[in-house]
Amino acid sequence: MNLSEGSSPQPRPPMSPATPIVFVVDDDVSVRESLELLLRSAGWQPTILASAEEFLARPRVLTPSCLLLDVNLPNINGLDLQKLIAYRAELPVIIITGCGDIPMSVQAMKVGAVEFLTKPFSPAVLLRAILIALERSRIWLEQEAKLQALRDRHQALSRREREVMALVVRGQLNKQVSGEMGISEITVKQHRGRMMRKMRVRSLPELVTIAARLSLVTAGEG
Fold it and tell me: What does the pLDDT look like over 76-99, one tens digit per residue?
């Protein structure tokens, strides 16, 4: 990377609610130092590491983040590390390498890399890729937080309320639920009312949508 190429990034205030973290895994100390200066000047929090093992030893974070990953690392190379953490959707990966080729870039993109950059690259190109990656991370974390809130609401239901919900979202009427559960229709209505309040929904379509997000029903049911 040539920091003299293009205009220098202007310092920006930290983002809210938490400063995004940009992990850097590169065994070249000069590259690590250059990237750390660039990332700090852009207002992000750099976490600089020299090997895949160092990165894997760190705990996951639930802050918008991304990973700048060099391909040529000792022991575990960058592409292998990318595969190991492919399940971590909250951490988009930007591959950086000094000797990339088309097959390598295709492999990286198939595993989900946001960008594949060949050294030397300009700060502007890298910063643009990081912005895209951090926005992707932020959106995923927001969606996951909303989904977890729905899981918590469903978990707070009583056993009977969950049973009623499972039958209602599959299209059963109160009378049918009553027959299946062996309880009165009045009791079904009571369970249903409490369940709807706890799930914070006002209509059956809303409830079905939530059930689908929680994988309580499959496409075509309801």
Answer: 999 999 999 999 999 999 999 887
CB 82 within 8 A of CB 103: no
**Phi, psi for residue 121 in degrees, rounded to 5:** -130, 160
In the chain, what are the domain boundaries?
Answer: 21-147, 157-213
Run of H or E residues at 49: strand 45-49
> Tell me, what amino acid is at 41?
S
Average pLDDT over residues 186-193: 97
Phi, psi of 21 (to 5 degrees): -105, 130
Q: Where are the alpha helices (DSSP H) in the chain?
A: 29-41, 52-56, 78-84, 102-110, 123-156, 159-168, 174-181, 185-199, 204-213
Sheet holding 21-25, edge to edge: 45-49, 21-25, 65-70, 93-97, 115-118
Could you tell me the CA-to-CA distances from 34 to 7, 11, 123, 130, 142 in Å, in that order? 15, 15, 10, 15, 31
CA 93 – CA 66 distance, rounded (Å): 6
The model's pTM is 0.78
**21-147 sits in which CATH class?**
alpha beta
Q: What is the per-residue burial (b if ≥16 Cβ within 10 Å, else e) of 19-53?
A: ebbbbbbbeeeebbebbeebbebbebbbbbbbbbe
**CATH number for the domain formed by residue range(s) 157-213:** 1.10.10.10
Joined together, the tokens standing for residue 67 give 């990973």
| pLDDT of amino acid 107 | 80
- Exposure of 22 in the CB half-sphere (CA atoms within 13 A): 29
